[in-house]
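Data card: per-record layout.
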Amino acid sequence: MKLRTLFGCALLLSSFALVRAQQQPQQQPGDPLADSFFPPELVMQHQQAIGLTEEQKEFFKSEFRKAQIRFTEMQWQLQDEAEKMAALVKQDSINEQQVLAQLDKVLGVEREVKRLQISLMIQIKNKLTPEQKARLMEIKSKASPR
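The structure for this 146-residue chain is written out next.
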């Protein structure tokens, strides 16, 4: 009985340690693309510091609006596909082919989201001047010391 209790406690403690480790920031290398792009929020937060022109501001506002609408549509679509998959895997007997086909749909929407994100960041980077990019890199490096 004592061995069982001890084992249970050890299992519980290791579970807590695992959850805690997942909640803390990872020390692993981050997103390999992060150093090459500028998130829309960063550009918006520092528009004066980097000297955005009115033409650039209008371009970014327009592109951000379009992307936000598309992200919202895809979020609804992703939720719909995920709910369908959840219903399939909750069944007592799971049809593997149906689940894998549904997984492909979920992953397809996620792929579209990632593609839209990268496309938006490419547009941002291409619209900025070399000086603005350098200033944003400086701002990024000060905000997240490695």
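Known properties of this structure: The chain has five helices and no strands. The domain at 54-146 is CATH 1.20.120 (Four Helix Bundle (Hemerythrin (Met), subunit A)).

See the next section for split statistics.
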